[in-house]
């Protein structure tokens, strides 16, 4: 989908967004000390429903080949999988429940294919470089729940970097870096998938670095509340966040730099959803299009002041940080 142009919001639009934001119930938010308020620990929606532990205390298994990786990803029961070096995948590889997949060092890389979290629960994917995928890099679908995608780096893929759809729920996407890519993150499969998606697609996106990418940061359908906070957007070509088709998105304390269209409602043929914008920081950027109300959040979280997000995120996002 090609990004469509959107008019610069009027003074009235911005004022309306500010008034609406005051009506949104939220958990306690802390701006923190001079050091980052946020840690690298799990936060957001993936803490709910019992939390997300992946393979837990299972004995780690180190893999260096595609066949070994595919075998353990598809196996039954908990597993902690350590990826070493560069592994080339073909197509999408299934990830079953109760798995932790983590790269060793800063160079662990999956090329050519992606990970398909399909009908699975309790999965953690961390510290991996995804390159040149032919479909999606990470696809979370078909009712998958309690998923944490953290500290990965994505570039030069074909379709979505992290797509979440078809009734999936309770997901956190945190501290990732995206560059040299077009369609970054889709949330919600289609406008006609409401029967499966209403009441689900609850996702938190925080401390991600969108570095010159083009669109879908994220593009949201049906999910409410979706929480987008403390992300750094630099040089976005198309748009930042889009709320569409019954969605409710809280866009909070993000840093937008050289981004003409930081957020808006509606996209393509999808009608406008609700979007509340609160305490964001803008440098040489538009002010966005916000309106409507968003459901309250059930979790507490620590948020950095928006003006500090650039330094915090560039210093902590991507591989090699954990």
UniProtKB/TrEMBL annotation:
<keyword id="KW-0119">Carbohydrate metabolism</keyword>
<dbReference type="GO" id="GO:0005576">
    <property type="term" value="C:extracellular region"/>
</dbReference>
<comment type="similarity">
    <text>Belongs to the polysaccharide lyase 1 family.</text>
</comment>
<feature type="domain" description="Pectate lyase">
    <location>
        <begin position="59"/>
        <end position="262"/>
    </location>
</feature>
<keyword id="KW-0732">Signal</keyword>
<dbReference type="InterPro" id="IPR006311">
    <property type="entry name" value="TAT_signal"/>
</dbReference>
<keyword id="KW-0624">Polysaccharide degradation</keyword>
<dbReference type="InterPro" id="IPR045032">
    <property type="entry name" value="PEL"/>
</dbReference>
<dbReference type="Pfam" id="PF00544">
    <property type="entry name" value="Pectate_lyase_4"/>
</dbReference>
<keyword id="KW-0964">Secreted</keyword>
<dbReference type="InterPro" id="IPR002022">
    <property type="entry name" value="Pec_lyase"/>
</dbReference>
<dbReference type="InterPro" id="IPR012334">
    <property type="entry name" value="Pectin_lyas_fold"/>
</dbReference>
<dbReference type="InterPro" id="IPR006626">
    <property type="entry name" value="PbH1"/>
</dbReference>
<feature type="signal peptide">
    <location>
        <begin position="1"/>
        <end position="37"/>
    </location>
</feature>
<keyword id="KW-0456">Lyase</keyword>
<dbReference type="GO" id="GO:0030570">
    <property type="term" value="F:pectate lyase activity"/>
</dbReference>
<dbReference type="GO" id="GO:0000272">
    <property type="term" value="P:polysaccharide catabolic process"/>
</dbReference>
<protein>
    <submittedName>
        <fullName>Pectate lyase</fullName>
    </submittedName>
</protein>
<dbReference type="InterPro" id="IPR011050">
    <property type="entry name" value="Pectin_lyase_fold/virulence"/>
</dbReference>
